[in-house]
Amino acid sequence: MNTHLVFRMFQYPYLLMAGFALVLMLVYLTLLQWRRISQYFAFWVIARIGIIVCVLFFLLNPWIEKYRLEPRNPRIAVFLDASASMNVPDVHGLNRWENAVRWIRKVDKRWLAGVFLFGEKVREVSEKWYERKPQDVSTDFLDLLKNISRLQKQYDAFIVITDGINTKANSDVVLRYAEDFPFIRPVVFIHPDRKEINDVSITEIHSPAFVYADEPAKVEVTLNSSGKARRWKGNVNLRENDRLLSTQTVRMSKGKGNVSFTFVPSGEGVHIYEVSISADDDAKQNNTAFFVVEAVKRTVRVLHIAGRASWDVRFLRKVLKEDPRTNLITFIILRTPEDYFVARDRELSLIPFPGKELFVDAIDEFDIIVLQNFPARPYVVPRYFKSIAGSIKRGHNSLFFIGGEESIARGGYTFSSIYPLMPVKFVRAPYYSHKRTTLQLTDVGTHHYLTSIFGSLDGALFIEGYIKGVAPRDGCAVLAESADERVPLVVACEKTSTGARLYVGTDTIWTLHAQSVEKNLYYDLYNEFMRRAIRWLTGHAGLEGRSVMRINEMEYEAGDAVKIQVRVPAGQASGKMRIVSKTDGKKVAYEFKNISNEWKTIRVLHLKQGIYQAELLSESNEVLADKEFVYAPVFEEMVRLTVDTQFLEDLAGMLGKEKSRVFKIGDVSPRELDSLLGENVFYRREQVAAWPMWHSPLIFAFFCVALVIDWIARRKNGLS
Questions:
Q1: Is the pLDDT of residue 646 over 80?
Q2: For the segment 456-466, what is each residue's pLDDT rounded down to a tens digit?
C-alpha cells in the first residue's frame, strides 16, 4: 500500500492564479511595513509570512490518497532496423542484426505484441521474422515516427533497436516532427555497441559519360580504408559481363588509395562494368561497384537544314559544332524562289539549294536529318521526300523536326511521303501562334531521358510561340506540352519500324538558355536538351519489332524505384515481365495488363545492388524485348556507419526525456523492461482511499490558531 499527497486545486488554474496573486500581495504589503517596526518585532513579521504560506498550502486543497499497484501484461511493439548497415560486425562474433534478434527473442512472449522492420518503409512481420536479413539500402526515421504515432492507442510502449544511421529523411525534419507530435507512450531506443570497423571500400568512380567505340577509355577508382585495414594492399579488378578485363594492385596510404583502368568497349551501345576489390574485411557490400558507359560512333553526321537564319539556328549550330564527334553540314535558306533579284544567280554569293545532292545522292551518309523551320515545298520535290522516307525506314538516319512559322506557312509536308514519319499529325489547319506559353512536362516526360532535366523547373519555363493544330501519332509519346492549351511541344517516337523521330513544335526553344542563366542553374537547359536529343536520336536509330521496352535511366541511386515502361499491342505479349539478376541468377516476375499502343509503367523496388536484365515475355515465354540496368551503385564507407548515438539522443530529447531514453544493448536486459520502460507500463495504479486534509479537526484547529496568531502580531506591531 502506498500513500501520497495531491493538490486538487491544480485542476482549477484560474482560481489557483487568483490565490497566488492574493498571497503575493499580502507578502508584499508585509515587507513594505518592515521598516516601520523595531528589530525586536521582526520575528512577528517572519511569523506572519510563515502563516501566509500555510494559508497558500490550504488554498491548494490538499488530499491524502492511498493506492496499490496491480501487475499487468503490457502490449509492447519492437521496431528493428533492417537496413544494410545492421550487417556490420558487433561483438562475440555476431553482427548488429544478430545481436538485436537475440535480444528480442529473450523478451517475455506475453509482452511482445508486435515486431516491425523499418528501413525504406515500416512493415509488420509475423512468423520466422528472425530468419530475415537486413537488406534495405536506406533508413527512414520519419516514416518510423509516423507509424509509431499511428499505433499509439494499440500499444503501451515502443522499443526501437537501431544503429541510428538516418539516410532517407532529413534529420532536422525528423526532429521537428518528433517535437511537434504528442507521443503519449514511452519510446525507448536501444543501439548496438560502438566498435572499430575494419573495412576497405570503393568510395568513388570517375568514368566518362560516353566513349568512342573500339577506342581506349579511362576510368578512375577511389578507395578508402579504416581500422586494421588502413594500410591494406591488394588487387582491384575490372570486369565486363563476368569477363576479367584488368587487375591492378593498390597500396593504401593513410586510408586513401587510387587506381586507374584503361579499357576498350566491345562495340557500340551501353556497357556495364564491375569494379571489385579482394579484401577480407568487416563489410563486403561496398567491395563491389558498377558504372555505365555508352559507346558511340566516332563521328555522327548531321544534316541541318534551316528555313531562315534565327537565334534558334545559331544556338543549335553552336551546340553541334562544340561536340567533337559531330560532323555537321548546315544549309540556311536566305533567299527563296519567290524573292526578286535584279542580278543573276551567278553574280550572287548564294548558291542554289542542292536538293538532289543532299536528299538523293548522299542521304544514307547522314545519321540525323534536322529540319528546322524549313518550308519544304519550294525546295523538295516528291522524289526527294520519297528518298528521305526510304532512308529513315532502312534505319540509316533519324528525323529531328523543329517547327516554326516558315515550316507551317509553306509546309508542303501534308501530302508528302515524309508526313507519315513525322511524330505529329495535323488535326486541323496548322498555324503558328506567337503567344508566350509555359512548358509543362507530362507524366512520361518527367522521367524521360530527353526532358527529365526540366523536372525541377516544371511549370516555370516558357517559350515565345509554337505550332497549333497538331496531335501525336500512335506510338509516339508527348513529353512536354503548353500548360494553358495542352498543345504538344515535344513529341518523341522510340525504336519502331520507322526509326527514331523527335518533334519540337517551336523555334524559340533557345530562350531556355537565357532562363538557365537567370535561374543560376549549374547546367544550360537548352544545351543539355540538344545534346541529349542528338545522343538519343543516334542511339535509337534502326529497326525493331512492335513490342517496345524502355528504361529511362541506366543507373539508380539507393532506394529509387526502377521505372520500366512497356508498350505491348494486344495479343502479342503475355502481360508478364521478368527481372533477372545477372549477379546471382535470381528471377522476379511482374504482371501487367496489355494496353494497345500505350505505355505502361512498372515500378520495381527492393532490389539488391547489382546488374539486372528486364525481359518482356510473349505467351510462349519468348523474350520479345530486353534491357539491362544497374541498381543501387551506392558507395558506403563503413567509417560513416559507426553507431550514431548523438542523433538518437537528440531524438529522445524531442520526444521527452521522461518518456524516451537511449540505452546500449549490452547494458540492458530484456528481463529488466519494467525499469527500462517505467512502472506505469507494467503496473496499474488502483486507488484505495482518499480524503481532504480539511476534514481533519486537528488541521482545522491548527489553521484557526495560525489566524489568531497573525491577528495578535498585527495588533502588537501596528500592522493592522
A1: yes
A2: 677 788 888 88
Residues 6+ apart with CB under 8 A from 272: 240, 241, 290, 291, 292, 554, 611, 628, 630
Assign 360 to helix, strand or coil: helix
Cα separation, 575 vs 618, whole angstroms: 8
Angle at 537 between CA 399 and CA 615, to 5 degrees: 125
d(CA 531, CA 518): 21
**Nearest in space to 607 (alpha carbons), one of 640, 644, 637, 582:** 582
pLDDT band at 145 (very low <50, low <70, confident <90, very high): very high
Question: At 652, which amino acid appears?
Answer: A
8 A C-beta contact, residue 87 and residue 638: no
- 3-state secondary structure string, 81-106? ECEHHHHCECCCCCEHHHHHHHHHHC
DSSP per residue over 60-82, as a string?
A: T-EEEEEEEEEE----EEEEEE-
Please state the length of the chain. 720
Compute the average pLDDT of residues 217-238.
Answer: 85
Cell of 543: 529497326
388-407 tens-digit pLDDT:
888 887 777 788 999 888 87
Q: Cα angle vertex 114, ends 110, 118, to 5°?
A: 150
Say which amino acid occupies 169. A
Nearest alpha carbon to residue 222 among 175, 153, 131, 291: 291
Give residue 11's pLDDT: 62
- Three-state SS for 491? strand
Which distant-in-sequence residues (6+ apart) come within 8 Å of 612 by Cβ?
562, 579, 580, 581, 582, 628, 629, 630, 631
Is residue 21 exposed (0-12), middle (13-18) or buried (19+ Cβ within 10 Å)?
exposed
- DSSP readout, 670-687? GGGHHHHH-HHHHEEEEE
> Does residue 119 sit in helix, strand or coil?
coil
CB-based contacts of 250, cutoff 8 Å, min separation 6? 223, 233, 234, 235, 236, 257, 258, 259
What is the strand order of the sheet 683-692 is part of? 2-7, 62-71, 683-692
Q: Do 240 and 274 meet the contact criterion of CB atoms below 8 Å apart?
A: yes
The yes-or-no verdict on residue 690 having pLDDT over 80 is no
Please state, in angstroms and rounded to a whole number, the distance separating the CA atoms of residues 589 and 566: 14
Instruction: Provide the pLDDT for residue 80.
Output: 94
Helix axes 171-180, 141-150, angle to 10 degrees: 20
Task: Quick: pLDDT tens for 1-58.
Answer: 567 666 666 666 666 677 677 777 766 766 666 555 555 556 666 666 777 777 777 7
pTM value > 0.90: no
Alpha-carbon separation of residue 252 from 60, 235, 715 (angstroms): 72, 11, 92
- What are the grid coordinates assigned to 609, written together? 545492388
Contact 35, 719 (CB under 8 A): no
End-to-end CA distance of the chain: 48
CA–CA gap between residue 441 and residue 447 (Å, rounded): 9
Mean pLDDT score across all residues of the chain: 76
Q: Report how far residue 318's alpha carbon sits from residue 238's, in angstroms, rounded to the nearest whole number.
A: 37
Integer Cα distance of 516 and 261 in angstroms: 36
- Residue 579 grid cell: 527481372
Per-residue buried b or exposed e for 337-357, using 16+ beta carbons within 10 Å of the residue's own CB? eeeeeeeeeeeeeeeebebee
Nearest to 462 by CA among 489, 424, 428, 426: 489
699: helix, strand or coil? helix
